[in-house]
Amino acid sequence: MDKHALNPDDLTTRLLLENKAWSEAILSHEPEYFHNLAKEQRPKFLWIGCSDSRVPAETVVNAQPGEIFVHRNIANQVITTDFNCLSVLQYAVSVLKVEHVIVCGHYGCGGVQAALSRQDNGLIIANKWLLHIKDIYRLHQAELEALPPDQRTNRMIELNIIEQVNNLAHTSIIQAAWKERKAPTLHGWVYGLENGLLKELITLNYNAPMENIYRYND
Ligand code: CO
Asked: What are phi and psi of 189, to 5 degrees?
């Protein structure tokens, strides 16, 4: 058998075959689609989401290729020493000049659930990533512990999203863009795995109040 022959039973082969069918279906309607898309990208949105396979950015907002610049990590965190996230943010804000940055978390987030538990000895790297969420718990401990236990995780998921939006506002990248062009607007959204719906939790624009210690000198 030709070693390059495609076996549709193979999992990754299935993806390649689906890709071929997808490309052909688009070209049959719009022969210039990829040719035009390849020229440049002008997304208006940066999406910072969770890596969870059930919350694919473009799919849940019915967006097309070219519309959303995407960064995803475990529990949709904006950690201001993470050069990966910051590089995406800088490119999106300073070069692509996106108009909106959306932090999108989701109910049922395994990353947040893990952060609310004792640390797993086997996941020494992931534990460190999740420590930042434990800090958010400590920041909002009084509010969280006043809630019935079955509501704590959902509220923690919401608070995590809100804190990540605040983290964005604290970066020089966002503050410089706000000063220069009064954009982007920052949004915190939570997605419901059980109903497929997004809910807005927080919106911050260039006028947002901010503690003096987080501001950069003019
Ligand atoms: Co998640």
From this structure: -120, 150
d(CA 193, CA 28): 34
Q: Is 104 a catalytic residue?
A: no
Domain that holds residue 59: 41-214
- How many angstroms separate the CA atoms of 129 and 133, rounded? 8
Residue 129 confidence class, pLDDT cut points 50, 70, 90: very high
Question: Catalytic annotation on 50?
Answer: yes
Q: How many CA atoms are closer than 13 Å to the CA of 95, on its beta-carbon side?
A: 9
Given 71, 85, 104, 109, the catalytic residue:
109
Same domain, yes or no: 178 and 73: yes
CA of 51 to the centre of ligand 1 (A): 6
3 has pLDDT over 70: no
Strands 100-106 and 45-50: parallel
Residue 6: band (very low, low, confident or very high) from pLDDT cuts 50, 70, 90: low
Q: What is the CATH number of the domain that holds 202?
A: 3.40.1050.10
